[in-house]
Amino acid sequence: AHQWQGIIAEYRDRLPEHVSERIVTLGEGGTPLVEAPALSARTGAQVFVKVEGMNPTGSFKDRGMTAAISAAAGRGARAVVCASTGNTSASAAAYAVRAGMTCAVLVPDGKIAMGKLSQAIAHGARLLQVDGNFDDCLVAARKLADSYPVELVNSVNPDRIEGQKTGAFEIVDALGDAPDIHALPVGNAGNITAYWKGFREYAGQGAPGHAGEGLPAVATHVPQMWGFQAAGAAPIVAGHPITEPETIATAIRIGNPASWELAETARDDSGGVIESVTDEQILAAHRILSSEVGVFVEPASAAGVAGILSRAERGLVPAGSRIVVTVTGHGLKDPQWALRTLDGSEVTPTRVSADVVSIADALGLD
Ligand code: F0G
């Protein structure tokens, strides 16, 4: 049986050579593409979810981080920095450990989920809680990397995009061709940029000079790209930066995405859309994913599912189309949302004594 080697080894011939000089990997990628009949029934399409929470640190960031940290290691870098709403910092911290590098992370004070904070600390990152939001953290991280001997590993680093494009390759490899529609959450807009690059390259439509140019096309077409922002943090939908973004989906609480124009290119060139979904829609989709599909995600990850459900309600999902929704991060990152009902009341487990009769009774068994 084939043992998955991580995305650089698996897709070496379609990635820039410099990321393979010193590969730093935790075996990322190779994540499940799971059919979701509950979502197909609700949309009239054939829906799959790409479960990126199954990566080593629990989010899609690991695909980009193996590439960025490998490239940095190849250049002899000793230290990296990132701004993060949590997942990037968890991933950077873990890959930095493997590379023997120092990792500094800048996170918005009080606005990152506990699981992610724990990961960055567990992996020994120099974690600084910044008095500001993600956008402020990213400005500071970029300046730090410009003036000091540390490399920036946010998705403005092109190696991050190269690594993350492999998610598109895996989807096509699993389905035998590109889906009709690919849906995902949009925050800093690196991932929609990366998927679009991957789908284009696999269909033989990559920009001149891309890694893997000249290799045979694998897909016959590219999908429409459907991106979804949280309503309180939807600058691309609004057409202007949001100075005080707000959403319970803290991973995508971003008001001025770094890859804004590239996200618009993905949307426009694919004939897709970028829309917003409310926190209520996100939590409802989060609940459907866990209670009907069997996949537990963090709230931001449910934005893509919320988006296709919202479009289905408006009659905007083509019947019978094949849709892949990338669900970006694991539910255990931010588990508190499972412990309350949609109307906000707390869910508390039933207590019983340790005898079979009271247990059967509590379960309603006769
Ligand atoms: N989903 C999750 C779980 C994320 O953590 C992020 C981004 C996104 C979606 C959006 O992806 O930024 O490429 O558009 N998290 C970043 C971080 C900002 O710092 O972890 P994007």
Automatic annotation (TrEMBL):
The keyword Lyase applies. The modification N6-(pyridoxal phosphate)lysine is found at residue 61. It catalyses: O-phospho-L-homoserine + H2O = L-threonine + phosphate. GO terms for biological process: isoleucine biosynthetic process; L-serine catabolic process; L-threonine catabolic process; threonine biosynthetic process. There is a cross-link at residue 143 (Isoglutamyl lysine isopeptide (Lys-Gln) (interchain with Q-Cter in protein Pup)). InterPro entries: Ser/Thr_Dehydratase, Ser/Thr_deHydtase_PyrdxlP-BS, Thr_synthase-like, Thr_Synthase_bac/arc, TrpB-like_PALP, TrpB-like_PALP_sf. Pyridoxal 5'-phosphate binds at residues 87, 187-191, 328. One of its GO terms (molecular function) is threonine deaminase activity. Residues 24-329 form the Tryptophan synthase beta chain-like PALP domain. Pathway: Amino-acid biosynthesis; L-threonine biosynthesis; L-threonine from L-aspartate: step 5/5. It is an enzyme of class 4 (lyase). Keywords: Amino-acid biosynthesis, Lyase, Pyridoxal phosphate, Threonine biosynthesis. Pfam families: PALP. Its EC number is 4.2.3.1. PANTHER family: L-THREONINE DEHYDRATASE CATABOLIC TDCB, THREONINE DEHYDRATASE, MITOCHONDRIAL-RELATED. Catalyzes the gamma-elimination of phosphate from L-phosphohomoserine and the beta-addition of water to produce L-threonine. Belongs to the threonine synthase family. This is Threonine synthase.
